[in-house]
Write the structure tokens for this entry.
Amino acid sequence: MSQDTAMAQGGFWRDTGRSGIGSWIFSTDHKRIGMMYLYCVLSFFLVGVVLGFLIRLELIAPGPTIVTAQTYNALFTVHGVVMIFLFIIPGIPASFGNLVLPIQLGARDVAFPRVNLLSWWLYAIGAVIVLVSLFTGGGAPDTGWTFYVPFSARTSTNVSLAVFGVFVLGFSSILTGINFITTIHRMRAPGMTWTRLPLFTWSLYATAWVQVLATPIIAITLLLVVTERILGLGLFDPNRGGDPVMYQHMFWIYSHPAVYIMILPGMGVISDIIPVFSRKPIFGYKMIAFSSLAIAAAGSAVWGHHMYTSGMSDLGVLVFSFLTFIVAIPSAIKVFNWVSTMYKGSISLEAPMLFALSFILLFSIGGLSGLILGAAATDIHVHDTHFVVGHFHYVMFGGTGFAFFAAAHYWLPKYYGRRYKEKPAIFGWILMFVGFNVMYFTMQVLGMEGMPRRYYDYLPEFARLNFVATVGSWILVAGIVIVVWNLWRGLFRGEPFTGNPWGGATLEWSIATPPPTENFDEDPVVTHGPYEFKGAGIP
Amino acid sequence: MENQLITSTQQAVDPVFTFLFGACLVLLLGITATMVYFVVRYRRSKNPEPTSQVSGSPLLEVVWTVLPTILVMGMFYYGWTSYLSLRTVPKNAMQVKAEARMWSWNFVYDNGKQSGKLYVPVGRAVQVNLESKDVVHGFYVPAFKIKRDVVPGMKNHVWFVATSPGTYDLFCSQYCGTGHSAMITTVEALPPAQFAAWLQQTAAGGAAQGQALLEKYGCLGCHSLDGTRKVGPTFKGLYGSKVKVEREKKEETVTADDAYLRESILNPAAAIVDDYPAVMPPSTMPEADLKAVIEYLKGLK
């Protein structure tokens, strides 16, 4: 980032004992760490977008198009690993969580600032290991991001190193979780009771528990895969008495709760934005806060719904299908409350609100298609097809991805003291929204027609819809380019952004722009809830 | 005919799809319509100040917790009961063994007959017993709405009944490496009499036997007989041709003779043909079959 621009902005951009790169990579300021995460996750997001774009381009027509089958398999594996472990999981919690959470609590920093810096370093080291694995050894992993055995134990590609990188990333996630939990318990300003916590912070609280409790399981599982490959232990290899399905259980015990690590913070962002742009208190505050905890708890016991066809017992299918439908209920409650918040409000359709509203719609489509996958009979047909690919992109990208951009348009002007232009933001949003639906809805139709996922080549009957989906990817990518470019340009060179133009009532809107290093001149005393706009001193 | 009494797998699943999609569509339209209405009705230009500061309603919360709970429990139950009919194989179902390997299918019938395509009689339930020779695969026939993973070391099965004659796609649904998307074949549903005749045919010797062996050992998943490029090089015109390979990291050109073919089958990693991935698993073909296969390849000009 340009030093000159940063210096001109003041606040936490300037106040520091160190200078140059050292003032960033050794800083324990939660805002600087949040910024470093932001730049990292956004870079990896763009890398993931390029890989996804290439996957769609290969699928534009049957037969080999631009790459070989081996390269294609590496493309979707690396797309998955980069997007999941390097973008979505740290995406909102580590970047916007670090930037916003301590200020929303009225704290000067997180509870353990040095551990916070260690988390970032572990993230950076893990990311470098994953990147190195792509270009060394037997080449980029070709196992899919799920690393299913026995295939992952046999392939000659560089799986061991990639898996070790993910292992390191896990520790970053665990430490951030511990830090946030402690911060929320111990660092709240006087008057910041649990029912005055902003819902974004509530969602990070629920997320942090999942990070702390679930991540160790994938760490163990991935370590077992490495020992299987290097020492030949035979834990998962049936020829030596191992069980491949046991691996799938262990993988999904983490990787399903991880889905909630990915989506809960996004839901928190939406819960903070909709009241502000409707000028109305959030509808059903306690239900939204509670439903985050309910999702985190129930979501930890539904992993088996990835395995209905695996040969798991029918009793297992019964239990996991039942629990999966239970998780649907708190998600539905959130959607109803968000929509009701707008009732009799004064709704302003600015960029953050447009991203937030499209989140509701896209997340609903993703959630409802999840019901098709949760029901045992219908899952059998659409499991492992493009229907699933469409479904999880609706939730992860239409949900978390759009929430990420909502958060960027909502909070980043506050942190930079400059703002983006509104019209290009809206134009970019329209392209993203249209392209997204053209691409992923078509994929769901393809899945219903029986096209399996992870297919390099396909039968001619799928050609027409694949072409449509690829065209959708072009529109989507064009939208992303415009949105990111507009943000970039605006935040460094745009109009000054001061005060509280949208009328937010949470604490981050009460301090100077950009926030000073110490956040608050004097310790704040909280006297009102996060969404009480009347009498909150808002102009 | 007693066969008419069997409910097919797709007949068990299709109504569940209809119900779920219908309910989802109603919910989605409801949410979208409400959102759009609120945005239009309460837009700031028309409603400059909020006309309510209501922050919740216990009654509404109860309503929209209880109603979705009832709905999703209905979905769960309907999905589960139909799933059970996918898992309950009708009595007297015909048994076929499916052997999956990277990257081909081989079907073995009770009388020992083997085939790369799954021939079945129309109107009779078929139980397919799934066996993997290497990694996890998936047996998927979209037309019958059935799928089951083929897990090494595990006994899995799946059943279906073809209600009318025809050809149905059969895919590998669980990712299994380079040739995953090439691991496809078909279900050929024949009228019962025609099927019985097919089942009794025995492979003749010579060329037909050679081709049957290639099918049995799964070679044709990656190597074509007609010159098409698949995961591996084609067999057409291979014998006697000059092949560029990489052996112990050194480039060399060899003639595809008996010794080369034998090595490539038993120890494929020793010499990798240029431009092709090093992915072929070693074969454990017995000596007699190996000879027959090489003889057959000689004739493929």
In short: The CA atoms of residues 236 and 247 of chain A lie 6 Å apart. Chain A touches chain B through 89 residues (CB under 8 Å). DSSP finds 16 helices and two strands in chain A. The domain at 3-510 of chain A is CATH 1.20.210.10 (Cytochrome C Oxidase; Chain A).
